[in-house]
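Example complex used in Figure S2.
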Amino acid sequence: MAGIKDVAARAGVSVATVSRVLNDHSGVREETRARVLRAVSELSYRPNTLARSLRTDQTRTLGLVISDVLNPFFTELARAVEDEARGRGYSVIIGNADEQLALQDHHVRTLLDRRIDGLLVSPAEGDSVALREAALAGIPMVFVDRWIEGLDVPVVRTDGTRAVRDLVTHLHRLGHRRLAIITGPVASTTSNERLAAFRAALAEVGLPLPDHYIGQGDFQTASGRRATSEFFSLPEPPDAVFATDNLMALGVMEQLRTLGLRVPDDVSLAAFDDIPWFLHTDPPITAIAQPTQELGHRAVAALTDLVEGRSAGSVTLSAHLIARRSCGEDERTRR
Amino acid sequence: MAGIKDVAARAGVSVATVSRVLNDHSGVREETRARVLRAVSELSYRPNTLARSLRTDQTRTLGLVISDVLNPFFTELARAVEDEARGRGYSVIIGNADEQLALQDHHVRTLLDRRIDGLLVSPAEGDSVALREAALAGIPMVFVDRWIEGLDVPVVRTDGTRAVRDLVTHLHRLGHRRLAIITGPVASTTSNERLAAFRAALAEVGLPLPDHYIGQGDFQTASGRRATSEFFSLPEPPDAVFATDNLMALGVMEQLRTLGLRVPDDVSLAAFDDIPWFLHTDPPITAIAQPTQELGHRAVAALTDLVEGRSAGSVTLSAHLIARRSCGEDERTRR
DNA sequence: ATGACCGATGTAATCGTTTCCAAGCGCGGC
DNA sequence: GCCGCGCTTGGAAACGATTACATCGGTCAT
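Predicted assembly (670 residues):
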């Protein structure tokens, strides 16, 4: 593979000059520049980014560690992040944590070893040594969707409080009185926020939230199944279930199907995060939608601010309820 | 950030020795090795992979260019690829081509600039200059799912011929006679294979495949909608539609919903690629399932063979039909 | 005529590793 | 007592770029 030296030789100049035209520094005679450019294309030379990064100490690469690639919310987020980053001249390297702390830290370290310029992360549950060290070491870093308490890192996220309240009101109005929730991991910030909002909203309408109506999940499909099966072995099962992410909602559907129960006749269902398929499920599923794309864009904006030496603050967007048939109301009778 | 020199100084040895223990070369006294290791952990030193790769000319990184991250089939594939690669000591960098040739080539070049050791790609439609050059330049490369004709590159893929035939037989047995297909991009190998299999199977049961029953899609949701709306402005619309990927099937569902048509009463639907949600749609959707994980694993195996100097051949797995209610048969009456 | 200055280019150090080669040392065989 | 050998270790040259600094004509003001 041709190197800068080959180009220099072919153009009859020094490597310094080649480098100058490549990085368009001023002060190269027009004719020389043309000669260099010609040599570059004749050899179809491409600079070695490893060498360049080693020397300049910047990679123009952002790391993105997401919780789970199989979750459509995160892939949409990843897509938005990549788009925005590319527009700003950065590449993105994605690491999939699969909701596992160890895997997350593995990726964080790998990314850091690659000397990425900044890190975007939606942290998994638990105490991440790698993330804490990185933050302390001053690696430009932004949390997206989820975050870790006590770290001085900007957070770009969606606040679902209002939407969860709307959901509870909605369910209450439809006559549901035994509302259950399936949470994410105990230490997950988003899950806790959603749980707190749910509990507060229930209190507002004068409903209790007994412990056995709190299913302990982990944002993965299987845990939705598990929680559902526990709910329905209760003497008095819930009449509505709120899954705090879309994969657990899938798990709920799967388990209800094996139990032979129907939505919304036997139980209502709602989910956090809206995905295209929710419109075509049987029945269409009520969901709380996040402005996912904007989340990604804003996160990249914040991170590049940090990387390029500007300061960056946290951003909070808001989610909204999309009511569909899964909560009992027939949308066809509504309008 | 601490470098190998700092470690050497702290351990009281030369950088050469540090490097030797880091790469565990033999011939370092046990006591020296221990001292070095201690220094490494005291400084929490991590080797700079850029420098290392520059010197050794290998990155232990694989590039994966997929057609569309928003397509669950590809994210599942990506996940499998990453798992397998990690197991073999490689990292994976993903590029999302979004079904666009230009974006694909952008990623291919970026990946090559990063000096990845090998490239796994599921090529988009069209003549990719970047891929052709890479193949010619001898970059270790493997195609997965889709491929490009005339390039000497191993292909790891699924053959759907048999499954498509099973599907056609299934539809025919259920009384359908006007079968339509929505294809991917014209030059797409997988789409062409599926179309050819569909046409052949129709011939076998003595059914025609008129041109107006061939919807021209591009593997994206919107094209599924478009093709469906064309089908239903025909004097005689099809009574069954086969979408050659899951996103286009989503588009079909969306369009049928706006047209007020019901599956399977008004028209049957089947899709290539099975996804978890197909079980919970209204009605559950008949699909042809690929062994996606195995596809990913085998692709990585083939690529690492190439990277590590062994030879690698193509692999063809096979898909199978999963019949659900969307084709008219009520699965509950079957068993 | 001289020196300051300017624009265009080249020389060489540097980034953090790996690895080839040489060197120091102790030891056994002659 | 010397030579050669094996075992450890160190010195220094790469890898391919960027960039501070030097150089070299030439112009212009004095």
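The two ends of chain B are 66 Å apart (CA to CA). Chain B is about 45% helix and 15% strand.
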